[in-house]
Amino acid sequence: MALELRQQLKLSQQLVMTPQLQQAIKLLQLSRLELVETVQQEMLENPLLEEVQVDDERPEPTIAEDSHAPDATQEEGAMQRELMKTAEWDDYIGDFASTSRQATVREYEAPEEGMSFEARLASKTSLEGHLSWQINLSPFTERQRVIADDIVGNLDSVGYLQSTVEEIAATTGATPEEVEVVLHALQRFDPVGIAARTPQECLLTQLEVYGYTDPVLLEIVREHLEDLEKKRYKPLAKKFRITLEDIKEYLDIIQTLDPLPGSHFSSSDPVYVSPDAYVYKYGEDFIIVLNEDGLPKLQLSPYYMEDMSRSSGSKDKDYLQDKMRSAQWLMKSLYQRQRTLFKVLESIVKFQRDFFEDGVTKLKPLILKDVADDIGMHESTVSRITTSKYVATPHGIYELKFFFNSALELDDGTSVGSESVKALIKQLISGEDPKKPVSDEQIADTLKQKLQVNIARRTVAKYRMAMGIDSSSKRKEVL
Asked: Are 389 and 381 in contact (CB under 8 A)?
């Protein structure tokens, strides 16, 4: 069979992701703060984009109905001019009239006025900087300071040493004995217990510095921290021949110690959430207000639009037209994003009205498909618009993903949301007796008997672990 080349025409439809469409999809999943940064960056790159300047509304001066008002105004102006001529300004200014005092004030204030706001803020002290400051003040030799700096460089974020003595000795060219001497001194710096290799070493160092010499306490910390973690108090009391009250006293002392001495110097800053929308109750209805604070209101630059109409060069005109289309697409995408966000929130409020009325315990099961069908959009669009978005409700600030949860069956055939069950589990645990905490099986039985929620013990354990709550054995307190 001979091979030959042929040309064929074929018509087909396919989805092409244009750069404009990719930008619109990207804007959907940006948080509010990221959106503000993106818009500001676009304003820097696109000369046709500019922010709408809202002029300050100043009340126009009103003319008094009294026919003598103009004369009174003129008379008051004359009195002001006369006062300016006759006022004893030297007595009023006082000591500030001296040239030397004024020069001193200007010299003091001028640097501050020229500094940025960020330059006036003090930076947060780091763990490395705090320890280096103490190393420089200590009576270390130059060789010991090299070893100490290497130890500080091998600390993790909470202050534990992540390298062995032998590795540090090999790096610095010292002997393991020299490293142990420096490490022993460094562990007694502030914070006490820093550069420890194990939690036991960290706590024992703190007990030594704070003057605790009880052999039972030291032995408990050295060998039985796991027993304390798992609340095995009776075997400890039997082994050391002491009472549970003594165990509680030792436990109180241990709880005053810090097993993570470097955590206070952590460089991680708190993340502040700015809600994308607010939901207020007004009468019997809920009002949705989108948060557009800080989001620039965009318009096409009249100057460049006029310049484009006068431009005769093809290159300049093509460039301006391309930037104009990009600016129009961005403004359209921003409008579409806000409109989609409002429609999704409106649908969530409709489905989860009981939550907005009474709180988390009334949260119903909801999936993305329910909202997508309600507003006539695709599930992927709903998923993108609910990513990294937060809403301020009468019961707190929640991520939009929070309102989508699975269902658990009730005995009457209805269902309840998993987040509602988590809230009920948290309520049961918060109201338990600390000396006799409820187990997962008891929680499951309580939910079945009182609330008719069909839930298994392993499901209770899964929800409890997801909320960061310990098991009943670890929640038990000393009698």
From this structure: no
